[in-house]
Amino acid sequence: MVWIPGGRFVMGSDLHYPEEAPAHMVSVDGFWIDRSPVTNAQFLKFVKATGHVTLAEQPADPAQYPDALPELLVPSSIVFVPPPGPIGTGDPYRWWQYIAGADWRHPEGPGSSIKSRDHHPVVHVAHADAAAYAAWSGKQLPSETEWERAAWGGREGAEFAWGEELHPGGRPVANTFQGDFPHHNSLLDGYAGTSPVGVFPANGYGLFDTIGNVWEWTDSWYANHAPMAEQELTAEGSSGCCDRAADAREASIDPTSQHGAMPRKVVKGGSYLCAPSYCRRYRPAARMAQGIDTSTSHMGFRCIVRL
Fold it and tell me: Which of the listed residues 155, 179, 201, 256 has the most CB atoms within 10 Å of its CB?
């Protein structure tokens, strides 16, 4: 793990996606954070020790999804499947498929495996799976503020965690999508999917893959950016914050979103599918909302330890 010093920094951005605004000053205490996302090998040790079964490996509860077709309630997860040719970027359901049998051991679905991917980030983990691993390892999931503080690597005010250019000197410094999204990845960075952790340069704090590779769960309930106490957005917070945490959980629900009535957490960092033509979220300030029941082929996590 790496020590991240406490202090004040500008969180968010007024220059990109609306959910990142407003940029505002926040304070955070120092903490330890995993140098890289949790890998398949690390998650396997956890599963062997505890017998944990991920959400994607369990059938869905019909009571939670009363309108779902029965064939969609079997153990499944969401997988990126590139289309055969140009289709535009207006309908993400044309490249995301809900595949029965897809899970962390079978990232692309039945017939795939994590053989030779020991050091790739584990994927197809829902928020509860990430939280269970963190608890087993004596750690926690980071808040959005903690995660963003760490991702900047001590730098502020730049476009990216490494400076102003996406590809400094024409060289990729993170695992993102190059080419024509979603059908053609030119593989300038050498990877069509996840990459082993640590193959791209570390940030100023010595952390790997805070940008690209996989989105990472935080423990913050999703809300519009506003200068508020971080514990109001986290699952637990300090003592006396239970009511506020419950309110934040309820407020995270947006029935008009693809997550429906499911509470949503913040995910950070972008993934190997972020492309200039579609998703410019390969920046520390970028954020997205994910339903806590969601697992995908491009979402993982890392843990922290607070003093």
Answer: 155
Mean pLDDT for all residues in the chain = 93
- pLDDT tens digits for 34-46? 999 999 999 999 9
Long-range pairs, 116-120, Cβ under 8 A, ≥24: 117/40, 117/194, 117/196, 118/39, 118/40, 118/41, 119/39, 119/40, 119/41, 119/196, 119/197, 119/198, 120/39, 120/40, 120/194, 120/195, 120/196, 120/197
Confidence of residue 121 (pLDDT cuts 50, 70, 90): very high
Residue 231 banded pLDDT, cuts 50, 70, 90:
very low
For the chain, the first-to-last Cα distance in angstroms comes to 13
Give the HSE-up count for residue 180: Cα atoms under 13 Å, Cβ half-sphere: 8
- And the tokens for 303? 């843990």
Is 190 or 246 the better-scoring residue by pLDDT? 190
Looking at the predicted structure, is the pLDDT value of residue 31 above 50? yes
- The token duo for 13 is 């951005």
Would you state the CATH architecture of domain 2-51+126-306?
Answer: Alpha-Beta Complex (3.90)
pLDDT of 157 reads 81
